[in-house]
Amino acid sequence: MTPRVKITPEATAVVEKLRDEHGPLMFHQSGGCCDGSAPMCFPNGELMLDDNDVWIGDVAGCPFLMSKDQFEYWQHTQLTVDVTKGRGASFSLEIPLGLRFLIRSRLFSDEEIGQLPPVKPGSAVA
Description:
Blueprint: E1 5-7, H1 9-22, E2 25-29, E3 39-43, E4 53-59, E5 62-67, H2 68-74, E6 77-85, E7 99-107, H3 110-113, E8 120-121
Parallel strand pairs: 1-6, 2-5
Antiparallel strand pairs: 2-3, 4-5, 4-8, 6-7
C-alpha cells in the first residue's frame, strides 16, 4: 500500500511532545481562508467529525482527516506533514511552541494510485 499521508521525523518529534502534554491527538487538514490550507492538530475527539470529513490515514499514531470536498481536489496527491518555525494563525496545538505544521505534497504515480488504501468517512473515526 502507498500511504496517502506521511510525516517527517521533525514533525513526529513535535507530535510526541504535544501528545505528552495533551494526550491522544488528531489532525484535520484545514481548507483555510485567512491562514491558507494547513494541517491542524487537536486533542483527539475535540473536532466534531461527520460524513463530510474523510480519514485518509494515520501519522505518528494520529488519525488524519480532511473535508470530503477538499479530498476531491487532493485525492491524487500524497501529503507529508512537516513543521517549521513561525506562528500560524490557527488553533492548532503547536502554535504556542512557536512552530507550525505545514504540508508538502506530490502527485502519485499511476502505479501508486493503484496501491492506495481506501478512505473512511469521518464519522467512522472515533
